[in-house]
Every structure is written in structure tokens, then in C-alpha cells.
Design goal:
Number of helices: 2
Low-confidence stretches: 1-32, 35-56
Number of strands: 32
Structural class: mainly beta
Radius of gyration: 20 Å
Shape: globular
Helix content: under 10%
Mean pLDDT: 86
Strand order of the largest sheet: 1-28-29-30-31
Length: about 425
């Protein structure tokens, strides 16, 4: 079973038929990832020319791509619908609908539906894809009654169990909101009291893992101020069969900022320190937990007390962090190439994690040996994966001081550029 990804294409430019729809808003993290919706002319559902939702099985693919552009500390998001997955020019945003702040798009792949949330409010707006490839508003739901006043972080804070059941994980209020995407109603809120650690802030994984009816969502903790890492690993386990959610912490407290996860061939979940945590360790090794690889059993919701690997020991002592899914029972580690990027005293770990200097090493999840993939170029340490048609997988690369996102091919191990766009592209949904 594969880890949960989005699906992402290469984008068409102005010369291609692009359709644009509103998005929403901003988050308090505008760097690389650990790194009411404006109408703006989009017709409401019920408008005579809005069309009917598209069932779309025989039509060519369509994709919704959301990017956030920041100028002078002010962020604006753009949501674009495109029919292309390959394009040589940067995404043209000239005609895009502009929405203040960070927008997150989410939904069930190929369902013809997009749910747009905003960091400037607690509202999720549903859009339906029409037969003529437009997105029209089709209802909204608010999480405000559950204490949520902003929706931030990343696309995968939204997890969809079915067309009638979805979850939103909110670190700020330490809860999981259970909602119905068909009825657009909130049905429950599950408190995560164990998520709170005194003096620390929690952040969720960018790519959780699905195992049966369970969603396994890693948690990273770091001090509320400063650049340290909290020595604790944990996951949220949501079981959609009974709508329960629990926080399971590693009782041995062996390492920290364990935000990345993949499902191994043994059906165990492997958890690793993310690149930012490894960057902190690189500059402060005596006071920072050692970046590590842990094993979690989703059947019993327990950590393997005897399984522990130092990430650096797998890559000849190099600074190593982040773990993403690879082919055929493997995963990829990200390894800092210090011949490309020189770490000097006083360098902020965010700059290290964001440097275009993290190479790919393929990790065998049976033998736990790692090998450098020389055909994949170095890129930024924190990445999102996106699936596209024909079993292709792409990854994001945040460059130019996080003002540009490049999207590159991972599945063929070429690293070739698929497309680029202004700003930070955090979310993508294949609409059909």
C-alpha cells in the first residue's frame, strides 16, 4: 500500500487553455516547509450558466494547482486548473484569481471536486468541475464552532476516508475535526490532549501513510522559540472505522522532529527525522537529538523498541534527513552535499534545509542499506511528492529564497524539470 500523496502535473501556460479558480490564504510558516473565499467572478452554484458537475471518465486529465506568492511579507494565493502535465515555461499567473494569504486545495483524486481552505479563516469551500472544465462554488462548511480560526500548514492536514467522511488535523487547537464533504457539515471533533508538550510547538507530516482504515500522521515538535528540536517522536493514529484518534509517542524518546513516514514491504511504518531537524543537528550536534529512523507497527500502534538507526550512519556520516517513498520496497533519504553548500558557524538551519544541496540516496527497507542515486540532482531538503498519470511521481524543489517552486521527475530517477511556478506550491489535486 502506498503512502498518501497528492497528484501533480506539469502546467500549461497562457497559450494553453487554463481555467482559474479562487484559493485561500496564508500560514505562519512562509519559508520552505519544515519547512470567506473571494468570488472574483467565479459563478456560484445555481447560476444558470454554471453547468453540471463533470463525471469525466472519458475526458483528458485536469489538475488544480495552488501556489502562494509572497511580496513584502504579504502573501497571495492562486488556484489554477490546467489540462497539461508537461510545460517548459513558468506557470503564468497573470489571469489567475488572487486570494490573500495561503490557500490549500484538497479532495479525493479524480472526483471532480476541490475543497479550498484558507489560513485567514475557518471556512472550507467546495468547488465542482463542470463539463466545460470550469470550477464553480458548490457549498461551504466552517470549523469556527470548534475553535478553529485559521487553516494552515499543508494539504495533507486534510485526509479523506470517503466522499462522506474526512478529517482535518489542527495543531493549534490540538484536535481532529471530523466532517462530511458531501453534506458539508462538521460531525465531530476529537481532542488530542497528548499532542501538547510544554514549551514546544507541534507540526504535522506533509505525507501521512494509509494502512487499511488507519491514517498514520507523524508529528514533529520543536521549541516554541529558537531553533532547537524537542526530543520526542510521535504519530496521530486516526481509525476511520470507528472515528477514533490517538497520539502515540515513542516511550524511549530516542530522537526528534520525526515528521516523515513511508510504508515498508513488511507493512510497518518507517519514521525519520525531517531535513530541518537534521540541519539543526548539523549546527548543534551536542544539544540536538540525533536524526534517526524508527519503526512503528500500525496493527498494534506500538514502536519497535529494538529498532533504531542513526540516519548519518546509513550515509557515511553525512548530514541526513527526510524520508520519501521510493519504488519496490525502497525509500529515498536526503543527504546534504557539503561540496555544493558550505555550512558555516551561525548559519540558520532553515537556510541549510532549504539549500539546493540535498542529494537522493535510495534506502532498501529490508537490508537498511543506502546508495547514492547519482542521476538525481541535488535539490532542497524538504519536498512534497505528487503522482500524475502513467504512474509518474514528481517532487517539489523550493528555490530562489522560496520565491520559485520547481517540480521535477522522481519516478524515472532523472530529476528532469517538469515545470516551475512563482511562489511556494504546497498543494495539488487531480480533478479528473
Amino acid at each position: 500500500m502506498k503512502a498518501s500523496h497528492s497528484l501533480l502535473p506539469r502546467l500549461a501556460a497562457a497559450a494553453l487553455a487554463m481555467f482559474l479558480v479562487t484559493g485561500c490564504s496564508d500560514d505562519d510558516e512562509t519559508e520552505t516547509p519544515d519547512s470567506g473565499v473571494a468570488d472574483s467572478g467565479v459563478p456560484d452554484s445555481g447560476t444558470p450558466d454554471a453547468g453540471e458537475p463533470d463525471s469525466g471518465t472519458s475526458e483528458p486529465p485536469l489538475y488544480a494547482v495552488i501556489t502562494q506568492v509572497s511580496v513584502n511579507s504579504q502573501s497571495t494565493s492562486y488556484v489554477v486548473v490546467t489540462d497539461k502535465v508537461d510545460h517548459t515555461d513558468s506557470l503564468n499567473l497573470d489571469n489567475a484569481v488572487e486570494v490573500p494569504g495561503r490557500a490549500l486545495g484538497s479532495g479525493i483524486s479524480k472526483s471532480g471536486t476541490l475543497y479550498v481552505s484558507s489560513s485567514e479563516g475557518a471556512i472550507v469551500t467546495r468547488y465542482k468541475l463542470t463539463a466545460d472544465a470550469r470550477l464553480v462554488k458548490d457549498g461551504e462548511v466552517s470549523f469556527a464552532d470548534r475553535g478553529v480560526n485559521t487553516i494552515g500548514e499543508y494539504q495533507h492536514q486534510f485526509q479523506y476516508a470517503s466522499p462522506t467522511k474526512a478529517y482535518y488535523l489542527d495543531a493549534r487547537t490540538s484536535q481532529v475535526i471530523v466532517w462530511n464533504p458531501t453534506a458539508m457539515t462538521v460531525t465531530n471533533a476529537i481532542k488530542l490532549s497528548d499532542l501538547t508538550i510544554s514549551g514546544a510547538a507541534a507540526t504535522f507530516a506533509t505525507m501521512p501513510v494509509h494502512v487499511g482504515t488507519k491514517f498514520i500522521v507523524p508529528i514533529g515538535w520543536r521549541p516554541s522559540s529558537g531553533t532547537g528540536i524537542t526530543k520526542q517522536a510521535g504519530v496521530v493514529v486516526i481509525d476511520s472505522s470507528n472515528d477514533t484518534a490517538i497520539v502515540v509517542k515513542d516511550p524511549k524518546e530516542r530522537c526528534g522532529y520525526v515528521r516523515d513516514s513511508v510504508l515498508g514491504p513488511d507493512n510497518k511504518v518507517y519514521l525519520a527525522t525531517e531535513a530541518y531537524g537534521s540541519a539543526v543537528f548539523r549546527i548543534a550536534p551536542t544539544t540536538t537529538p540525533t536524526p534517526c529512523l524508527l519503526r512503528f507497527d500500525p496493527e498494534t500502534n506500538t514502536y519497535d523498541p529494538d529498532f533504531f538507526r542513526e540516519l548519518g550512519a546509513l550515509t557515511n556520516g553525512k548530514a541526513t534527513g527526510s524520508l520519501v517513498e521510493g519504488p519496490d520496497g525502497t525509500a529515498y533519504l536526503r543527504v546534504l552535499d557539503e561540496t555544493v553548500y558550505t555550512v558555516v558557524d551561525g548559519t540558520h538551519p532553515r537556510l541549510i534545509a532549504s539549500a539546493v544541496a540535498w542529494t537522493f540516496w535510495q534506502l532498501d527497507l529490508t537490508t537498511f542499506t543506502a546508495t547514492h542515486v547519482s542521476t538525481l540532482p541535488a535539490s532542497t531538503g524538504s519536498s512534497f511528492l505528487f503522482d500524475v498519470e502513467d504512474d509518474k511521481v514528481l517532487f517539489t524543489e523550493f528555490t530562489n529564497n522560496s520565491s520559485v517552486t520547481n517540480v521535477r521527475y522522481l519516478s524515472d530517477q532523472s530529476g528532469n524539470l517538469a515545470f516551475s511556478t512563482q511562489g511556494l506550491m504546497f498543494s495539488f489535486v487531480q480533478l479528473r
